[in-house]
Amino acid sequence: MIVGGGVGGCAAAVAACSLGLTVIITEESDWIGGQFTSQATPPDEHGWIEQFGCTKTYRAFRESVRQFYRDNYPLTTEAASNPLLNPGNGWVSPLCAEPKVFLAVLETMLAPFVTSGILKVLTEHIPVDAASEGDHIRAVTVEHLQTGERTVIRAPYFVDATENGDLLPLAGVEFVTGSESRKESGEPSAKDVADPSNSQAFSMCFAMSYQEGEDHTIERPASYEYWRNFIPELGPPWSGPLLSLTSLSPRTLEPVNYNFEPNREPNVAFAGLWTYRRILHTENFVPNTFDSDISLVNYPQIDYLGGDLNHADRATRSKLIDSAKEQSLSFFYYLQTDLGFKELKLRGDVTGTIDGLAKMPYVRESRRIEAEFTIKEQHVSADHRPGETYATPFADSIGIGYYRIDLHPTVGGDNYVDVEALPFQIPLGALIPQRCENLLPACKNIGTTHITNGCYRLHPVEWNIGEAVGHLIAFCIEKGETPRSVRNSATLLNEFQARIRDRGIETEWPTGLNLEDGDPHAHAR
Which are the contacts of 115, defined by CB distance < 8 A and separation ≥ 6? Predict the structure, then answer.
């Protein structure tokens, strides 16, 4: 049973089903896909992603997104023949596309397993209870959000792929939240005192277009005056009111003025906010197909600092999300009125919602299992490994990833933490709970710290984690072993690693990397 149908959950399902396992996957939203779809965030990726540094199935998924546009959209001849087609030409990623296209491709990947009967997908279901016996989970109860009907699901293995690690407390699996102290972790960027409620802000993203000569001004949000005057209480201090095109550079914490020119920014990296996460660029399509680009908003101005989802019950979580929606709508209204961009139009048809916002919050930080091995800043930080090209090697590697340690401001009052990381590995030990034998994490809930969560939380890494988990469960069932015994037996570990490498999961980085080429935005320069 996979609880959570986001990026890691879908990857785990594809892997497990491809190996013949019978799988049930549940998802809170009516869309599977998490960050790609219901959260409406184009993938954050490194500069080598087209050649290496992700799994074979992740690359196939990306290529299927491109093919979907070639098969279904009136692309220009140049765009259609471009092997590296970027439908939105956004510079956050070499593949910026619409949430509904990501969704269509994911559903297509899962469709053969659904048709054959080995996969059942239960959308609009949340976990509400779990039954454990000793160190094993025996059953999980899920509830349908519309009808309230409850279903008890029993399985030999359970995967927590929820965005907030929601299965962990229900099943009594030991976990941590928020920020560790420097004394606990020894991390240079950690705080002096631990704060379990100090999670990164979450965001309610939205899509928008710019309809020349039209007025699409929304109704003034009820809390607009509050958000218009809101200045985050952070240390170091924020640059001024949050609703502004002046913000802070995550790397230097110096004020930076962002350019914002709908449909007019040059098609180069760092040109401005409009092109940053643009998911549809009119120049890729036959003239007059679309009368505007579509751009996705996931800016600092919508980072919600009013509460921590990981410590909220269902009712409180709903209130926090509603407040975050008000913040996002207030920023949109600010763009329309204070800055005079009344032609901006919310695109609920793109996000699949009536209010125009994403279906689900974009969650940056989850509950994290207390793992056999915890990844710390010292393992991946470039500052901690001077002169090195690679992060600490792990003998139990089950995948690789690369991104900066990128922490957004937190609900506990911390400003950005942005630290250069090195190309890293994903250790199997970070996926093994210290006690529970038949639960595995497949999302942002692995054994990282608050700090290293900042580079292990992105789309390709989450996919890799989920895919490895699907393979691991199949391997354990075949061998009659536990994930823990696989990790702690050299013979079993070597056999498992050989198997996943044969299936296209890279466990080591190529030698001779040039780190400048791997910059997350290198492709757009």
Answer: none
